[in-house]
Amino acid sequence: MQAKPRVRCSGVQPFTQIDFPGSIACIAFLPGCTFRCGYCHNPEFVLPERLKETEESWIDEDAFFAFLDRRRGLLDGVVISGGEPTVHAGLPDFIRKIRERGFRIKLDTNGSRPDVLRALFDERLLDYVAMDVKTSLERYQELVGPCVRPEAIRESIQMIMERSPEYEFRTTLVRELHGAQEIQGLLELVRGARRYALQAFRPAITLDPAFASYTAPDAIQMHVIGEQFRPYVQELLFREE
Fold it and tell me: Residue 121: pLDDT above 80?
């Protein structure tokens, strides 16, 4: 019998009270990503050359589950983040093993692989999904690279709204990237969402060094943008990136 693919974590944050609403959790970061967003603040989990530098320190499944077993009764859930977790063939089995231990699951995703999301929903493996919605569909490939099918983004958004027990969409706003046309495109994508979070770009660490000179909307601009979304989503949040 062929062995099931296994997951290795590129990092683990042992405790968070803010990343999984309603749950005390840890975060398992999985390496690699389908996108190349210039403003990404986790390039060490995305770029192959950066991943290679840290590979020796990655945490295998046995070590992660030993850690998790010691946290029973202390944690409610596990956030699976990245990178982009859905690129890993071993993700479904990884989640099953977490759920068998009694933990709730939150998945952070860029929505590029609706087929993977569908399979996870079919097995009812997810309690909460947070999807980053980057920009209008027309600008998606320009921002994240040619590997994305814009219609896959729309498909994932619709599926999450229909099938996820709890969910949120979130957008990182960059003044140079999110003009009136992009905001209108975002509004159409998330219209009717249960929860939508806006966060301002943070230029300190970026995948593309050129983005270090880009700027975040100020508080007034964030408020003005937020007011455009408020009539169309059930709950609007403002977060730090």
Answer: yes
How far apart, in whole angstroms, are the C-alpha atoms of residue 16 and residue 104? 14
Residues 80-95: pLDDT tens digits?
Answer: 999 899 999 999 999 9
User: What is the residue-averaged pLDDT of the chain?
Assistant: 94
Question: How far is it, in rounded angstroms, from Cα 8 to Cα 186?
Answer: 34
Domains contained in the chain, CATH given = 11-240 (3.20.20.70)
In the structure encoding, which two tokens stand for residue 150, read together?
Answer: 């814009």
| Residue 222 pLDDT greater than 60, yes or no | yes
Please classify residue 166 by burial: count the beta carbons closer than 10 Å to its beta carbon, then call 0-12 exposed, 13-18 middle and 19+ buried: middle
How long, in residues, is the chain? 241
pTM: 0.95
Let me know: does 170 contact 196? Beta carbons within 8 Å: yes
**What is the CB-side half-sphere exposure of residue 113 using CA atoms within 13 A?**
18
Place of tokens 């290795």: 8
Residue type, 118: R
Task: Characterize 89-107 residue by residue with b for buried, 16 or more Cβ atoms within 10 angstroms of its Cβ, and e for exposed.
Answer: eebbebbebbbeeebbbbb
Which residue is it, tokens 């998945």?
107
- The torsion defined by the Cα of 211, 129, 147 and 94, in degrees rounded to 10, comes to 110
Residues linked to residue 81 through DSSP beta bridges, in sequence order: 29
The residue assigned the tokens 């403003």 is 39
CB 111 within 8 A of CB 132: yes
